Amino acid sequence: xxxxxxxxxxxxxxxxxxxxxxxxxxxxxxxxxxxxxxxxxxxxxxxxxxxxxxxxxxxxxxxxxxxxxxxxxxxxxxxxxxxxxxxxxxxxxxxxxxxxxxxxxxxxxxxxxxxxxxxxxxxxxxxxxxxxxxxxxxxxxxxxxxxxxxxxxxxx
Length: 156
Prior knowledge:
Elements: E1 2-6, E2 11-16, H1 20-53, E3 56-57, E4 60-61, H2 64-80, H3 84-109, H4 120-140, H5 142-146
Antiparallel strand pairs: 1-2, 3-4
Helix pairs in contact: 1-2, 2-3, 3-4
């Protein structure tokens, strides 16, 4: 028997035998999987368009380095949608990685000659991907955010 969080009363109910927390994790990942796949497809289309059709994609002027980074992120997003643990790790890496890239790009953009040709649109894209990564972290770790007795993934 384990203690489970009772969302209606706000207290932990002793002796609860249902595994609602694990079901909530599975349900959250089932919805998050579509976001991961959708993100991957959109990034692969943008990167393919930039690599094949030229650097001007919609409002973005993607350098080959940015297009390669977007294609790698898109591939990783689609692949990591297959497993819950991989999806969680990917979301964390995306959030932190694109935040650091956003900070680097905004500093490099303000230089007289940007080192790899970052533009304001690239910087905005990196910021948007970082925010999406943080959103995915909060979504895929739903039980950790809502259940005070959560001790990590169960080892069944």
